[in-house]
Amino acid sequence: MKRVVLFNILFLLMLGGLYAQEPRQWTLQECVDVALEKNLRVKRSLYNVESSKITLLQSKMAFLPTLNAGTAYGQNFGRALNPVTNLYANRNSNTINVQANSALTLFNGLRLQNTFRQSAVDYDASNEDFSKAKNDVIINVVTLYTNVIFNKELFGNTKYQLSSSQQQLERIKKQVIAGSLPKSNELNQEAQVATNEVNLINQENSLNLSMLQLKQSMQLPGSTPFDVAIPELETEDLILEQTPEEIYDISLQTMPEIKSAILRVQSAQLGLKASKGNLYPRFTVNANATSNYSSVSDQARYAFDSDNPPSISSSPIGITQPGNEQVYSYVPATKKIADGYDERDQLKDNVFKSFSFQLSIPVFNGLQTRSAVQRAAITNELAQISKQETENTLRQTIESAYNDAFSAAKTYAASLKQVNAREEAYRMNKQRFDLGALSYVEYQISENDLFQAKSDLTRAKYNFIFKKKVLDFYQGKTISY
After folding, report:
1. Measured between alpha carbons, how far apart are the two ends of the chain, in Å?
2. Which residues of 234-260 are buried (b: 16+ CB within 10 A; e: fewer)?
3. Is 293 helix (H, G, I), strand (E, B) or coil?
4. 20 to 30 A Cα–Cα from 163, which one of 19, 36, 68, 95?
5. How many Cα neighbours within 13 Å face the side chain of 238?
6. pLDDT over threshold 60, residue 306
7. Measured between alpha carbons, how far is 56 from 59 in angstroms, rounded to an integer?
8. CA distances from 383 to 144, 170, 251 (A)
9. What is the DSSP letter of 295?
10. What is the pLDDT of residue 45?
11. What is the DSSP annotation of 201-257?
């Protein structure tokens, strides 16, 4: 009983290990979601959006007045100017200076307004670029996902062909032993089995490569266990409802790269207007406030005493002519009003305020402004060219996809008829070969023709489905399987 229990435990552990090693099957939506989350180009585009948002906020805040404040502390040794009294004092002292200033631009050739509009357009364009980056990732993942499904189906066909040729080899061996077929038929069939094994290896390599490319697009390590869930793909109506021109007209309204190109043109035009604003006079209003403190003045405070008469100075201040009489000055009477004149009182009493208007007229500055305007004009022309290139690229892509889908539809219809005919021919030839009424070479040609017809049908099927999905994508429809 213990041995039975131990055997069952080991069996369950082995079975669990086998299930644990089975690769996870990914759906198309899961592959797209992971690729969008990890793709570095998408992340870079997202940061570009954030940068444009910051620039937009900055250009909006440029309409508000500027406000700056500062302070300074200094120590003076020996004879120095008292910033409070503007008199020199021959003593060591400490000084404090505080200031604040504000400025508001009233007119600068509408540069602020055009810069703000340009920043708003650039922000919208960066969002469209972000959508374009995501669309590129989606198209790439869908292409690679379709390649995996295509290679898996071809791998299954090749596997089936190898199995069929191996079974046929076993029958031929028995017939050779019985003497009903020559030894050459067995050798030829062994060569065919070897050829099919090579085809299977090549097709397995193609499948593994397509798997690796899909994992790389998702930023997954190549060693990650991976498989795809094969959806039920039915060939849609082989008729393309819209013409390439109709699809292109729709894509002009839906594709983010077109919207971005249009916005970039608008941005360049606004940038040109903003640069022309530097040719106009600049009118600003400024306000300043300053105050200071000096330790030289940090002593008892006195004020005029109107209640007591002035006194005569002890020393004469001059001599009259003629008469040579000495002249004395009158010193006003003072009284002590404070024991000290500290930082707070000085800074409060020494506040100085100013308010001014400033007009700056550009006359000559080394052609800097003119050169900036010319460069902005060139940028505007380049934006127009980029927009035309984007439209041309989109048109060519749609026309190529339409032509491929149209050709794939015709190829699929023809390949379907070919497969049906090849299957019937192979069935009849197999019966004749088993009865000895058909040579081995003719039978092998029939089998190879059937395999090639199935491969062509698979290729045309997936080519049409994918190209049809691409055309739907350019019309703003979501790609899904």
Report:
1. 52
2. ebeeeebeeebeebbebbeeebbbbbb
3. strand
4. 19
5. 14
6. yes
7. 5
8. 33, 70, 20
9. G
10. 95
11. HHHHHHHHHHHHHHHHHTT--TTS--EE---------S---S-HHHHHHHHHHH-HH
How many Cα atoms are found within 13 Å in the side-chain-facing hemisphere of 458?
19
Query: What letter would DSSP give residue 218?
Result: T
The rounded radius of gyration (Å) of the Cα atoms in the chain is 45
293 belongs to a structural domain: no
Mean pLDDT, to the nearest integer, of 433-459?
A: 81
Residue 330 makes CB contacts below 8 A (sequence gap 6+) with 310, 311, 312, 313
Which token pair is 392? 């041309």
- Total residue length of the chain: 481
Look at residue 220 and give its three-state secondary structure.
coil
Phi and psi at 24, nearest 5°, equal -75, 140
201 vs 39: CA distance, rounded Å: 32
> Which CATH number fits the domain that encloses residue 450?
1.20.1600.10
Q: How far is CA 64 from the centre of its chain?
A: 31
- Using CA atoms, how far residue 161 sits from 1, 73, 204, 231, 448, in Å, is 48, 92, 14, 23, 9
Q: What are phi and psi of 318, to 5 degrees?
A: 175, 180
| Residue 17: per-residue pLDDT | 44
Task: Give the largest Cα separation in the chain, rounded.
Answer: 168
Q: Which residues have CB under 8 Å from 416's CB, separation 6+? A: 457
The one-letter amino acid at 169: L
Q: Which residue has the tokens 């049908």?
A: 457
AA letter at 154: L
Q: Give 69's DSSP letter.
A: E
Average pLDDT of 195-220? 94
The percent of residues in the chain predicted with pLDDT above 90, rounded, is 43
The mean pLDDT of 320-336, rounded to a whole number, is: 71
CA distance to 46, 154, 218, 231, 248, per residue, from 29 (Å): 21, 23, 12, 12, 26
Assigned domain for 2 exists: no
What is the pLDDT, as a whole number, of residue 22?
67
Pairing, β 352-360 against β 282-294? antiparallel
Residues in contact with 462: Cβ distance below 8 Å, sequence separation at least 6, in sequence order: 146, 149, 150, 153, 233
Which pLDDT score is estimated for 15? 41
What predicted TM-score, i.e. pTM, was given to this entire model? 0.77
Bridge partners of 358? 284
Number of domains in the chain: 1
Residues 19-39: tens digit of each pLDDT: 445 678 888 889 999 999 999
In a domain, 457, yes or no: yes
Assess if residue 319 is contained within a domain. no
Per-residue pLDDT band at 393 (split at 50, 70, 90): very high
Spatial separation of the C-alpha atoms in residues 346 and 352, rounded to whole Å? 12
